[in-house]
# Entry
Amino acid sequence: MPERKRLTAAQKTQILRELLENHESISVVSEKYGVHPNDIYRWKKQLFEGAPEILANKNQGRKDIQKENEKIQKLETKLRYKDQVISELAEENLSIKKSINGED
# Structure
């Protein structure tokens, strides 16, 4: 039994591009690259099933990233404020302890 070929995503893309752009038949392309026609049909199906997601979300992805960055900025500001409040409370607590112990 011949050893199974392992193709990278780039090689699969090249095969599909040749199939679609050059209007070659699947049998010709499969013979040329030594892959089974069913594999090419499966890759083609995967390509077209994933295409709407890739094409539709380009602008949506940018908006999502911008919203996430704004959210991160707000949270960082809130965190800085909380750190400042904690620092003030710790100082106040320390000064109260010192005054109680008579160290002042």
Q: What stands out?
A: The radius of gyration is 31 Å. The longest helix spans residues 37-101.
